[in-house]
Amino acid sequence: MKKIITIFIIILIAFFGIFFYLQSQKPKTQYSFAEVTRGDLVQTVSATGTLNPETQVDLSFKTAGRLEEIYVGLGDNVSPKQRVARIDKGTLISDLRAAEQDIKAQKKILANMKRRKNEYKKEQEDAQRAAIKKYEELRNAILIQIRDTNLYSPIAGRVIKKNFEVGENLAINSTVLTVAQGDLIVESDIPESDIVKIKVRQKAQIYFDALAQDEK
Q1: Strand 150-153 relative to strand 82-87: parallel, antiparallel, unpaired?
Q2: What is the pTM of this model?
């Protein structure tokens, strides 16, 4: 009987020894503590979008040519009817002189007809007047082309785009400058789950891709 009790005690000691050993091998639970402070709870909504002006106008020449002058730069303010750029006139000045010489010569012919009226029929004088009118129309067309070598801003605003440099060749209707007017508007797609968090007239922070995160 004594032997049985001894064996039982040994088994019991071994059991508790194994139990406490296994318990000691378990990782201890770590607790971290922090000081409780009071502050505002901020909820933010982030989205990507584009920044567009309220009004913008693309400025382009009505005729092709080489860009000779740009009188404004990016960020410059412009006023209505201000000249902002100019292309070369090419042969337009010489064409204008030639047209004016032709008109002058045709008018001399008409004056000679009037002096020698008996030698010319009325139909001939009418034909000469028609010829003078055609040369005058040609001259006026050249004057319009010369005027179109200058580019003017139709509105007051700020230059936000500059697409060409002096010396480059331009095709007809190539946008040289873009002028913006009014406030800048951010257009962005906000998820339905976030749109409820936004209120009218709520302030927002805008970050530009070209700037660092601390430049808003």
Answers
A1: antiparallel
A2: 0.61
Three-class SS state of 172: coil
Distance CA 85, CA 163 (A): 12
Query: Looking only at Cα atoms, what is the longest distance across the chain?
Result: 169
State the DSSP H helix or E strand holding residue 51, giving kind and residue range, or none if neither. Answer: strand 49-60
- The secondary element (H helix, E strand) that includes residue 5 is helix 2-25
Domain extent at residue 81: 50-185
* Per-residue model confidence as pLDDT tens digits over 200-213: 888 888 777 754 44
- pLDDT tens-place string over residues 5-56: 666 666 766 665 666 566 665 566 666 666 777 777 777 878 888 878 888 9
Asked whether 165 and 67 are in contact (CB, 8 A), the reply is yes
Cα–Cα distance between 122 and 128 in angstroms, integer? 10
Number of domains in the chain: 1
Residue type, 174: S
Q: What is the pLDDT of residues 137-168, one digit of tens each?
A: 999 999 999 999 999 999 999 999 999 999 99
Residue 121 CA: distances (Å) to CA of 17, 111, 127, 132, 159: 142, 14, 10, 17, 61
> Is residue 170 packed enough to be buried (19+ CB in 10 Å), middle (13-18) or exposed (0-12)?
buried
Domain CATH code at residue 93: 2.40.50.100
- What's the Rg (C-alpha) of the chain? 43
